[in-house]
Write a structure and sequence with these properties.
heterodimer; A: about 550 residues; mainly alpha; two-stranded antiparallel sheet; 2 strands; B: two-stranded antiparallel sheet
Chain lengths: ~550, ~650
């Protein structure tokens, strides 16, 4: 199957928010409305481009599409290399989908320094999109850091009372991870000196041949990348920046933190850790699966005890991210596919929950759940929307959340060796999720209606405009997830076949015609398709420079 | 699959769950702006149309030979990832059509009843939106072609149950009961989900048709695989169908509107576990140990819940325990392999228990919402049609011939006996005596006995139910009387059992030959006589005690009475053994998070900051300096390695 091309379109994707930021920056700060409209327009334009890419993307191939490659610092093997594949095409669309909604919701929430906010948010969008598109390690690192700075300011300048401490905690945590990752990137570069292409930061080139890392060194580099990504997701026990940041950031910024930025961490595991360090991924997979299960149960339990609405949702978000990590390190197609679609689902559902929390805060200024009560009687539409989003977060079938969690768990259940235990424990997480989410709904929306909330205003038109698209996606993915799944399957197969085949033949490719090596983690009794993932070319085979 | 393609059947089968789903969508979107008439018309119309569609499917199947009554419909590829493919699949066979007819038929009657019952409620449109969504979910569960699609319905009915129990959400008790129902059934759902995962591991699919066909070949009889799979799914069933030990949510679920109790918590959703087992009979047949567990849990639940109903003062909670107990009979039936008898009792119970609930609702409607039977009494004169309806339901429940409950219960007990489970049979008979006792007690206290001392004075006008409520009760009363025709004969299979046979016996290779009915003719009469005699004894005893209120006061004084009134203290045990420890554990995690994990990180951070004296003095400068250091350090390392690399090359 061919790959889709359109020169410059990915650069355009990053350039539109940057240009929007520049345009807004030179506008008159007093014309708040014009500033907002300009920012929103550039976000919508970005979404249009991302949507076009998503539609034009050809499923069925693991190769990079819409690829752009230019020399940057050729002497050092750095390139300006962008591309989308099955891993990123939907994440890019999700990012571009959520920014217009967040900017729309920000109109009611961000009252001060409007212009600066819009500029910072657009810079963040450019950074995030670049992170997903970059195919060069240095370029990736630049974008990775570039999204950090705007997020720091969004928390530190527009956040709640304890914003300063929360922002510092956030930046220290993530930078600690970044440093480790940078060192690991340099080490990978040096290791690649033995490749025919010479030392390079170019990811497809790095993946075209085995790196030949010694096991201890591979473990070390895997660990350095993993810590950076684990902090971002976050993975237990590196999560304690999260409740503070999620609760102190303005609600729309929390949406971006939880929906998009957390995905950058999960994405990093699949994009870099698995293919670059396949042996270490296999060896340390069980450790990460264990941390994932702890995160699911622990995050849910702590969420259950929280009296603050946003801290409850923050721990809940962490609990749900545990499912994504669990699926990634189950290392088989159903589970990894489940993790990828769950990244989108988590972005939509958790994003929607934080939007709703923001709508409640806008109305009352109250953050504690026990300061509400019975408001379903006053705001039926808001209550109905919350219910739908909650149901999606609970992963009830018919909503998007089910598709992801089901695939993750069914895949984990069959992965070797002790995974049924992990699957059983993680499945217990669905009860915990019911406990804290229904506690949230119960305390806020049910019970006797508080007198001082009797006059609460129901959803406004602008709020409908934010929620309706999210609800539509919830049901669309719930009943017809194939457009998402089919876009990522070939890439997932290719990555997993790297992880699997490296163990069978560490240095050499299996000869053509040789019987395919047994694929780790895919012993399905009852179907004979365990070997079909080998049909796809290894990652990067079609894009040799 | 096996049947000839009949284009009309797939279309109708899709419409059956789709119509109420559309009803939910339009009522949810516009119901609040519509008049009550329109809302009622849409809600009842969609469900009635589903029933008509189910009848048409029945007619289409009747036109086929009995071996061909099996149409598997894969609408589209729903989920596919690697080796796992799950179609949005429906399965139309004799079993699913029978269940769909019961669900949509009883559902339509209860929708009509609700129009009268909820007429003055503010949340009229919301109520019918939820009810229609429930019907859509329940019919999806019924017609599902694989376990995953069944799980859509399975969770959907659970959601609607939560929403409708907590329908009057401003009442804290209702809101609490809704959450309790959802969480307790979700505990069971964990088992169901794990069962689905195991089914994929064992069969590579969760398709009912394939599993039924290949179970005998893939699962060794009595092997661990079949047993674990059967028990995991049964765990889901105990949650949804309120069996021991997960029954605790159902009595509290009576906080919901009474028609909801009739539809969801008596006739349909709570019997889903029985239906699921009948659907998966081929797997259960390979797991005798699991079957024994199912039968034993059913029998023990039957007698336990009947005992709990003996002293209950609340009329709806009596019916709730009765439902738990009667579903126990159904599990007893399917647990001994009497699939047809289990489904027959499911059908029969849907008729008479819905009737009892609707009659109870009619009483509450007349009394302004009272459910305490000690505040009722003497209503026979004021509500004669309601009393008659309740009496028909009660006699049927007690198992008095020729009402439908007699046939279905005795069918189960007879099958249990003939398959050699004498002890389970004895439990069933004992429970039948208790059943007769508690339901006559309820009838006597409500309608016959003189009003008690604590009955508030009220007017003595007749409060017969409005027509919208009366007609459905009449219909269900008729079904409770005449429904026995579905299983008239004991010596050879009844109509329903014969109809179900192709579906529920497929895939079973060496079915233990059921003791031939004909040879047992004499024994059969003795069995029937025993159960009727026990029921009659229970009824007479209850009548003598309660019709004249010989037992005064609400709190029984004896130790036994105290244990019964607290349902054997199972709820207290749950609180002590599960709920309280979970809360403590969660609080511990929270403390750990705040004080240890975050404390450690903050500690390290502070130590670093104190050492460098950077953080406190220049917070904003710190960031920049940090970034600069990082960059310089990285460049230095880079330069070093480049030089080193260059030299080595």
């Amino acid at each position: 199957m061919g790959v889709s091309m359109a020169p410059g379109v990915l650069t355009l994707l990053i350039a539109i928010p940057l240009a929007g930021a520049a345009a807004v920056a030179v506008m008159d700060a007093r014309g708040e409305r014009a500033v907002r409209v300009a920012a929103l327009v550039s976000a919508v334009l970005t979404f249009c481009v991302a949507g076009w890419i998503w539609i034009r993307f050809s499923p069925g191939t693991a190769a990079l599409q819409f690829e752009e490659k230019r020399d940057w610092v050729p002497g050092l093997g750095m390139g300006y290399h962008l591309g989308v594949d099955g891993l990123t095409v939907s994440l890019v669309a999700l990012t571009a989908f959520l920014f217009p909604l967040a900017l729309g919701a920000a109109a009611a929430q961000i009252r001060g320094r409007v212009k600066a906010f819009q500029v910072t948010a657009l810079l963040l969008e450019a950074g995030l999109l670049g992170t997903f598109l970059a195919q060069d390690l240095v370029l990736f690192y630049v974008f990775w850091e570039a999204m950090l700075i705007p997020m720091y300011f969004l928390i530190a300048l527009w956040g709640g009372p304890a914003r300063g401490a929360a922002a510092i905690k956030f930046i220290l945590y993530t930078m600690a991870g970044s440093v480790l990752m940078l060192l690991a990137i340099v080490a990978v570069y040096l290791q690649s000196g033995g490749l025919p292409e010479g030392p390079t930061f170019d990811l497809p080139s790095l993946l075209a041949r085995p790196l030949g890392l010694e096991p201890p060194r591979e473990a070390l580099l895997f660990g350095a990348f993993a810590v950076a990504f684990a902090i971002k997701m976050p993975v237990w026990p590196l999560h304690t920046w999260l409740p503070d940041a999620y609760a102190e950031a303005p609600p729309v910024v929390t949406v971006l933190l939880a929906s998009v930025m957390a995905k950058a961490g999960a994405y990093g595991f699949v994009r870099f850790c698995l293919p670059l360090f396949p042996d270490a991924s296999r060896s340390f997979g069980p450790v990460l699966s264990g941390l994932a299960v702890i995160g699911i149960l622990y995050g849910g339990a702590v969420a259950w005890t929280q009296g603050d609405m946003r801290r409850l949702l923050a721990y809940g978000s962490m609990s749900h991210m545990g499912f994504i990590l669990l699926g990634i390190f189950a290392l088989n197609i159903p589970a990894v596919q489940g993790s990828l679609i769950q990244m989108i689902n988590h972005g939509v559902s958790t994003g929607a929950l934080f939007f709703l929390a923001g709508f409640l805060l806008d109305r009352t200024g109250r953050t504690r759940t026990d300061e509400y009560g019975g408001i379903a009687a006053a705001v039926p539409a808001l209550a109905a929307a919350t219910l739908i989003v909650t149901v999606s977060s609970l992963a009830l079938p018919g909503t998007n959340g089910f598709i992801g969690e089901f695939l993750i768990l069914v895949g984990t259940y069959q992965a070797d060796p002790a995974s049924p235990v992990a699957a059983v424990l993680a499945t217990g997480g669905i009860v915990v999720a019911a406990a804290y989410l229904l506690a949230f709904v119960g305390r806020v929306f049910h019970g006797p209606l508080r007198e001082d909330l009797r006059g609460m205003v129901d959803l406004r038109a602008a709020e409908y405009a934010v929620l309706v698209p999210l609800v539509l996606v919830i049901f669309w993915v719930g009943f017809a997830p194939q457009p998402l799944l089919s876009r990522s399957e070939a890439t997932v197969s290719a990555i997993l076949s790297r992880v699997a085949t490296r163990s069978a033949a560490p240095a050499a490719r299996p000869a053509a015609g040789a019987p395919p090596a047994p694929v780790h983690g895919l012993q399905y009794r009852g179907t004979s398709s365990a070997t079909h993932i080998l049909r796809d070319p290894p990652l990067g085979a079609g894009v040799s420079p | 699959m096996t049947g000839a393609p009949i284009p009309v059947v797939p279309l109708l089968a899709v419409l059956i769950p789709l119509l109420p789903l559309l009803g939910w969508a339009v009522l949810g979107l516009w119901g609040r702006r519509w008049g009550r008439r329109t809302v009622a018309l849409v809600a009842c119309g969609t469900v009635t149309a589903s029933f008509v569609a189910a009848c048409l499917v029945l007619r289409a199947l009747l036109a086929l030979s009995s071996g061909d009554r099996h149409v598997a419909i894969d609408l589209y590829r729903w989920i596919a990832a690697g080796p796992i493919t799950i179609p949005m699949g429906l399965l139309v066979d004799t079993l699913s059509v029978a269940m769909a007819l019961v669900v949509s038929g009883v559902g339509a009657l209860i929708h009509v009843y609700s129009v009268g019952y909820m007429a003055d409620d503010e949340g009229f449109a919301r109520y019918f939106a939820y009810m229609n969504l429930f019907m859509a979910a329940m019919l999806t569960l019924t017609l599902a072609g694989n376990l995953v699609v069944m799980f859509i319905g399975w969770e959907g009915v659970g959601l609607c149950s939560y929403l409708l129990i907590a329908f009057w959400f401003t009442r804290p008790a209702a809101a609490r009961a809704g959450v309790k129902a959802f969480i307790v059934t979700r505990l069971g759902d964990v088992g169901f989900l794990l069962g689905i995962f195991l089914a994929f591991a064992l069969f590579g699919t969760a398709d009912f048709t394939v599993m039924t066909r290949t179970a005998a070949a893939r699962l060794p009889e009595g092997g661990a695989a079949a047993t674990v799979l059967a028990l995991l799914l049964f765990l889901g069933a105990t949650g949804k169908s309120a069996q021991l030990p997960l029954y605790v949510w159902l009595p509290d679920a009576m906080e919901g509107p009474t028609p909801v109790s009739a539809l969801i918590h008596a006739a349909t959703m709570v019997t889903a576990g029985v239906y699921m087992i009948a659907r998966m009979h081929a797997v259960y047949a390979r797991a005798p140990l699991a079957m024994d567990v199912v039968a034993a849990v059913g029998a023990v639940t039957a007698i336990f819940a009947a005992a709990s109903a003996l002293v209950e003062p609340d009329i709806k909670r009596v019916l709730a325990y009765s439902t738990i107990s009667q579903i126990g009979y159904m599990f007893l039936g399917v647990g001994v392999g009497a699939w047809g008898a289990g489904m027959f009792h499911l059908t029969s119970h849907a008729f008479f228990k819905a009737l009892l609930f609707l009659a109870a609702g009619s009483v509450m409607h007349a009394l302004g919402g009272t459910t305490d039977m000690w505040q009722m009494g003497g209503l026979l004169r004021r509500l004669p049609p309601t009393a008659a309806a309740f009496a028909i339901g009660a006699l049927s429940l007690a198992g008095i011939p020729p009402l439908v409950g007699f046939f279905s219960k005795d069918q189960i007990l007879s099958d249990v006996f003939h398959r050699g489970h004498v002890w389970l049979w004895a439990l069933g008979i004992a429970a039948a005596g208790l059943t007769a006792f508690y339901i006559v007690r309820a009838f006597a206290l409500t309608f016959v006995a003189a009003p008690g001392a604590d009955t508030p004075p009220r007017d003595h006008h007749r409060h017969d139910p409005p027509r919208a409520m009366a007609w459905p009760m009449g219909g269900l009363a008729l079904l409770s009387i005449a429904g026995g025709a579905l299983g008239w004969s004991f010596t050879h299979p009844g109509v329903l059992e014969q109809w179900l046979r192709p579906a529920v016996e497929a895939g079973i290779v060496q079915n233990a030959p059921a003791a031939a009915g004909g040879a047992q003719g004499g024994g059969e009469a003795a069995l029937v006589a025993t159960s009727v005699a026990v029921a009659a004894a229970g009824m007479i005893l209850a009548w003598r005690v309660y019709a004249r209120r010989t037992l005064h006061g609400r709190s029984p004084s004896s130790v036994v009475g105290d244990i019964l009134a607290h349902q054997f203290y199972i709820e207290a045990m749950y609180d002590a053994a599960i709920v309280a420890p979970s809360r403590a554990l969660a609080r511990m995690a929270e403390a750990l998070d705040r004080d240890v994990i975050d404390g450690a990180v903050t500690g390290i951070g502070s130590a670093l900051a104190a050492g460098g004296q950077v953080l406190r003095k220049a917070q904003s400068g710190f960031l920049r300096r940090y970034a600069a250091f990082m960059l310089i350090g990285a460049l230095l390392i880079l330069a070093y390695w480049m030089l080193a690399g260059g030299i080595s090359r």
